[in-house]
Amino acid sequence: MKTAQEFRAGQVVSIDGTPWVIQKAEFNKSGRNAAVVKMKLKNLLNGSATETVFRADDKLEPVILERKDVTYSYFADPLYVFMDEEYNQYEVEQVDLEGVLPFIQDGMQDVCAAVFYNGKVISIELPTIIVREIVYTEPAVRGDTSGKVMKVARLATDHEISVASFCEIGDSIEIDTRTGEYRARVKA
Predict the structure, then answer these.
(1) For FRET with 32, which of 60, 114, 115, 174 sits at 20 to 30 Å CA-CA?
(2) Model pTM score
(3) What is the mean pLDDT of residues 52-80?
């Protein structure tokens, strides 16, 4: 048994004997009230979705799942298709990719992990660090060097991310997929 605050998006929990995949988990601690975790859940058996709130110290039963390395292949509206090294294809719905969708793009070479429950892919996990190219950003402002200066940059997927002011169009950057934050500029 694990406490509710230990669970992250993509993990599966058993509630009343039914497996639920966590699509979003937000920890909230307010001044007077107890700490809570607001979760967006999807039922693995019938596909229904719900949002619920647990106290941070509520005990929940984790479900152990099978994982397999896959790479992104193509988008077949409305499904994203991933392939393993034996050329088996796995189709994943957009709602199951909610947290990683901004970083999935055509031609990406990142090895992802497909998470299975009863032979069905329920989520995709990206590597912790990925490299993406900036397709648009404003030029840096001269003279603004006090502290950590950030600006907005757009990736090929139209996702916007805050980057250091010295990053330019065409630069490759490292992104932490757990937080979705810029880490560093890398040489291509």
Answers:
(1) 60
(2) 0.70
(3) 91
